[in-house]
Design brief:
The chain has 7 helices and no strands. With 96 residues, it is mostly helical. The radius of gyration is 14 Å and the shape is globular.
Length: 96
């Protein structure tokens, strides 16, 4: 039998509801809070997430604060991050 580790407060802080994750995986971002929730779910800081996405931190902050919305290729990358967060973390480590 495999031991299942207890969830920590950090795990709960990163969690997003399955219905929201499905919506994000479809590329439907309703607000900047969605982008911020996805970044926390992936487990990266703003600087790390921006680097892994190939965008500036300024652009990411604008998305998260609702001043701008992601479009085109950025939506595609965010969809990949929602479906396969490990890939975004791997992209960050290979860029370093």
């Amino acid at each position: 039998m495999t031991d299942i580790p207890e969830l920590t407060a950090r795990d709960f802080a990163r969690a997003i509801p399955a219905r929201v994750r499905r919506r994000l995986a479809e590329g439907i971002f309703e607000s900047g809070d969605d982008v911020a929730a996805l970044r926390r779910f992936v487990g990266l800081t703003q600087a790390q997430f921006a680097q892994a996405m190939g965008i500036s931190v300024h652009t990411l902050r604008n998305w998260e604060q609702g001043r701008r919305t992601p479009e085109g290729p950025a939506i595609a990358l965010l969809r990949v991050a929602a479906r396969h967060p490990r890939i975004l973390r791997e992209n960050l480590s290979s860029a370093a």
